[in-house]
Predict the structure.
Amino acid sequence: MAKDIYIKKGVLITILLFAANTMYAQQQTSQEKPQTDTAKVYRLPNKSLSYPVLYGQEVKDEHNISSLGYLKGKELETTPSTFIYYPLTGRIAGLATFQSSGIPGADNVTFNIRGRSSPIVLVDGVVRPLSSINPEQIESVTILKDALSLVTLGQRSMNNAVLFTTKKGNRGADYFNFNVKAQYGVQSPVSKRAFLNAYDYATLYNEGLGNEGQNPLYSQQALNAYKNQTNPFLYPDVDWRKQLYKKNAGFNRYTLNAEGRAKSAGYFVSLDYLDQKGLLNESANNLYSTNTNYKRYIFRSNINLDVTKDLAVFLNIFGRINTGSNPGNGDTNGILNEINNTPNNAYPVFNPNGSLGGNSNYTNNLWGRSTSSGYSQSLEREGYFDTGFKYNLNSLVEGLWLSSKVSYSNNVLLNTNRSKAFEVFNYSESTPGTPSYTQLTTNTTQVNTTAVNDYSQQFYAEAAIGYSQKFGKEEISTFINANLDSRREFDNGQLPNRFKTLAGSFKFIHDDKYIAEVAASYAGNDYYLSGKKAGFFPAAGLGWNLHKEGFMQSLKFFNTLKIRGSYGLTANSESGYYTYQRTYIGANGYVFNNTTAGGIGEGPLPYVRTYAEALKANIGLDMTFAAGRGWFAVDYFNNKQSNLLGQIPQGSDLLGMNYPQGNIGKNTYTGYEFNLGWTDQIGGRFKYEVSANLTTLNGTVTENGEAAQPFSWLQRNGQNVNQIYGYIADGFVTAAGQGPVVAGYQSIAGDVKYKDLDGNGYIDQNDVTAIGNDKPIVFYGLNTQLSYDRFYLSFLFQGMQNSQVVIGGNTVLPFTNGGKGQAYPHNLERWTPETAATASFPRISIGNNLNNYATSSLWVRNTNFIRLKNLEIGYNLSNKILEKAKIRNIRLFANGVNLFTISPFKFGDPEMPATDYSLQKVINTGLSVTF
């Protein structure tokens, strides 16, 4: 109850703040003289294209010599999603996204840029782990990929960066926009894992037992009963996926935005509400939800004020409340995984008397776990503010300026557990028609506990001085920035992790043709040993606008043509928590003279770590042509990483504990990025734009600290970073005793045989080698936008090539979990004497099989795919009637995400092959009204 009151109060305060900001904006605008030309009132300033980069700086496209990716925030609004990272998929070269779950509130994606995961994410210049922000708040997204654009981040520059810039009210003519958007969508799983029915399961199980020389478990009478379902309580056939999952679930979003400028004030105010339902079925007997629901409330207020012609100040306020619900104990993942361990014939959902079914092997009824185990809730609150100023010192020196910024954020996650146990009964018949019930579990009282599972704070401050000026054909710009970023996780009791950075850059431009830039930072982290806390990280770049040269003037086809390159040293802090100090931990004690004593043990071995580094080289070519209708860009990058953390090789078994991780690794990532596009119109009414991007990525291990290997194929140095290792499968055994097979294993017909690389007659660790391909991974996207009059259509295809995984575990193999697991339709493609020539899988085994289920090329599968990631169709109503009603525009639209996928992978979704709560397909409709 207290939590519900808190949420309602928070929402009320947010609405009041939103209303106050909007009323202020309207009041300021109304004080202006009326405009006769309404188009001028609403028209945004027409500026040349420039990209926001670090520390509040901007770079003109013509003068940019870094490797950047850029998107306007408007492009993100066509993708219905809960997390802002999701709409970036397939739109920017060099950026790959991966999703590992479809569970509401946990369906976030992770970034990988040029081979490095977990890039730094900045919102308005401050590093934040922020993903819950609605696309309507985003002005632009900039991806920083080379050393020149990144080194000023100091010890957080190696993993690349994603910079979100939020809307703040454009400078220029006064205007006011108020937008209301309502959306409703329907979600459904992209992929659905199928299971064998009870009859096929039991038949295949008997076959597996026969392969091991054992008697069948299921009699012919039982097989007939499973097939005909004459007694579903004793011989059940339950499709647990259908039992637990809905076919679809709802998705709702409502957004209010006010944006504008009045006199000397610019503002943007936004209020967002999202409600994402889960796919779990619920019981009508419950007074509470046990589904995986997720709700989110977001408030943002950005205000910029020109105090004088030289002094500008700003205040950004952000607040977010997330609420989530799950079955008891937050058991969603456990329930979904248990489906793979519960065959269709395990037990009935309900016994004849309505009690929950089970037996001695399956005492935890899945329907009970999902609907009768109580529920759990989460409440997350996040808030931050940024404030600062910029002061132009033109009265002292033309082009000189000072700026400062302070930011504070706070995040709290509370989890409430209201779980309980439930009764399960085994139903049997001692004689036909005589029921008997054996109780397997008992009810318990519902618990009611709340705990703070995460509590973090961040304080950020910076001060900068800069200068920019033009002297005839020469132009220079420079700045120096000093900043402190202190963050603390209170739930783990650790001291703050403080990043201190002194950064700067200098750019020189001659006649808009020749561009030179240097940048550097001196940065440190408190968690390192004194004397090793900080380092110096420089970078430099050159650019040449060839199209401005006299010899290019006759080539009218090219509008712009630029060559650029950069090189520099970046770093990534992977310090751990004071790892150079020796620590002691609680332990079970030790035995001395037959007596247990003590209670304190030695912690992990201390190790003096340092930051990882990467020398990044980038060469690029940019061009536009055909009167600006076409564009093309290509980048080549070569990133040599060093000091990567890896397990120090075991020097001696006498130590008695694991060696620590040290800075022993070196990797090299190389690749190409291509961007090309064309935009045009036909007849003045039909307009179109087609753009594509493609990235190749090749990662090579150049050093990993491994000892010399007895055989060349065992060497990991020189192999692909993501290389798969295992045995090379060489068909199936056709008679008992054949091989080669795993050492100590006695083969029979249908077992996997392998290539004996060292020639000793059996398979062991010396026969492990690289399996699968070692080709560069390829990511690509194709984006098309069409419009005719007020109709428009946009769609995005996204894909990946040369990607492979090893399949296995309880989502692929039959009868896992000691023989109690599921079986799947593809298991019918097993080896039998009749299918020996066409079999895809070895003979059926019960439980784990040491030989057949070893990691080998037999289980390697391609996860290449092409997906219609996003599609939107819409219609804009805009006419004189709307203008008289003070309505600028009404837009009706429908969009969808993950609409279809083409892939050779048949074991789930290729993007998340081992996940049981699938990626979601969303069909969404909406209405947007702008005043």
